Amino acid sequence: MSVTFAQLRDAGGPEGATFSDGCPTRVVLDHVTSKWGVLVLMTLSDGTLRWGELRRAIGGISEKMLASTLRTLEADGIVHRDAHPTIPPRVDYSLTDLGVGLAQRLLPLVEWIAEHAEAIVARPPR
Q1: Chain-wide mean pLDDT for the chain?
Q2: Are the CB atoms for 41 and 102 separated by under 8 Å?
Q3: What is the pLDDT of residues 61-74, one digit of tens each?
Q4: What does pTM read for this prediction?
């Protein structure tokens, strides 16, 4: 069965409609669909990576933005951080089961964007 956005939006309980102001869905959408959030999720969908590997794989991301994005996604239960007590320190990042499910749902959107991005960007401004 397919669900429309209107059905999702109107499915809220006594607190109001889903996606309304103050609804937790807006917080999660903000975290997941941020520029860097999507890129971190897609990069980690291929498997566990160390900090440096992740940063190199996501061209253009600053250390500050990577750290902030990883902290946010970890707090949301989407990314797992595994710190090893070694010298030098080693930290691995991977997707949790929740993150894997999310990445699987985001992949068709990212594929669509990759397929159409050049044509969309090349359109003359109105």
Answers
A1: 88
A2: yes
A3: 999 999 999 999 99
A4: 0.84
Name residues of the chain where pLDDT drops below 50: none
Q: Which domain holds residue 67?
A: 22-111
- Rounded to whole angstroms, the Cα distance separating 114 from 108 reads 10
Cα 60 to Cα 106: distance, rounded to the nearest angstrom: 21
Query: Comparing C-alpha atoms, which of 88, 105, 101, 95 is closest to residue 70?
Result: 95
Residue 6 included in any domain = no
> Would you say 95 and 79 are in contact if contact means Cβ atoms under 8 Å apart?
yes
Number of domains in the chain: 1
Task: Give the whole-angstrom CA distance, residue 43 versus residue 90.
Answer: 19
CATH number, domain containing residue 73: 1.10.10.10
